[in-house]
Design goal:
The chain contains 9 helices and no strands. Bound molecules: heme C (HEC). Heme C binds next to α6, α7 and α8. InterPro entries: Cyt_c-like_dom, Cyt_c-like_dom_sf, Cytochrome_c_Oxidase_Subunit.
């Protein structure tokens, strides 16, 4: 990712919007802040019981699988729901209730669990 931004900057031919898209944390400093938290996967496992009712390892229908997604992707998605950048009534309600430590712990847990 970092290399991509660097290359993009050096090529000089891209717009700032493209550079921002290359690194989500530039759009939302909150994502970088949460990624910097030393996350506790055990706490994440404890909190995850609320999530796995829907996000089972083999979810059905419109529910996406979140097991084994990259940690930064999960943090990014939850921040996007929290700030309303990504809209989905259930996930917005859930994400708005979560604190930064909780998001960090959940992202660590789900990124590691199969
Ligand atoms: C009532 C069911 C339900 C519960 C409970 C739930 N989710 Fe979700 N979640 C969904 C649905 C449906 C979507 C897809 C929404 C959309 O289309 O944006 C989703 C999307 C997501 C995404 C984005 C996935 C992607 O592929 O982009 C993440 C990350 C996520 N949920 C995490 C969580 C976490 C963490 C919890 C527990 C704190 C949780 N969810 C609890 C139903 C649920």
């Amino acid at each position: 990712m970092r290399g991509g931004v660097f290359t993009a900057l050096c090529s000089g031919a891209v717009t700032s919007a493209q550079i921002v898209l290359a690194d989500q944390s530039l759009v939302h400093p909150e994502i970088a802040e949460i990624m910097a938290i030393e996350a506790d996967a055990d706490y994440g496992a404890y909190l995850a019981s609320e999530c796995t009712a829907c996000h089972s390892p083999n979810p059905q229908g419109a529910i996406p699988q979140i097991h084994m997604l990259p940690e930064s992707y999960i943090v990014g998605a939850l921040v996007d729901y929290r700030i309303g950048e990504r809209q989905h009534q259930v996930m917005e309600t859930i994400a708005k209730r979560l604190g930064e430590e909780e998001i960090a712990a959940l992202a660590k847990y789900f990124s590691e669990v199969e």
